[in-house]
Amino acid sequence: MDLAAQVRGQGFPCDKPKGAEKNNKASRPNEEVWILTCENASYRMTVVPDMAAKVEKLGKQ
Q1: What tens digit of pLDDT does each residue of 26-57 get?
Q2: Residue 17 burial by CB count (10 A; 0-12/13-18/19+): exposed, middle or buried?
Q3: Are 17 and 37 in contact (CB under 8 A)?
Q4: Could you give the CA distance from residue 17 to residue 24 in angstroms, rounded to a whole number?
């Protein structure tokens, strides 16, 4: 799964992805929560199979 490509496909900028970390405490079966860090922004992504991810920009808006 390419989280950076998915977030860009949903209209969010992600220049030079730096990494992604799964948040195991927030994740549930069939609903994984990831923190994606890009050069220009960080996002919390809730990924559910066969659906668009819920994307929240972290930090400065």
Answers
A1: 999 999 999 999 999 999 999 999 999 999 99
A2: middle
A3: yes
A4: 21
Instruction: Report which secondary-structure segment, H or E, holds 37.
Output: strand 32-38
**Span 21-25, mean pLDDT?**
97
Q: What are the tokens at 25?
A: 């405490």
DSSP, collapsed to helix, strand or coil, labels residue 55 as strand
The pLDDT-based confidence of 59 (bands split at 50, 70, 90) is confident
CB atoms within 10 A of CB 52: 10
Domain spans of the chain, in order of start: 3-58
The answer to whether residues 37 and 20 touch, using CB atoms and an 8 Å cutoff, is: yes
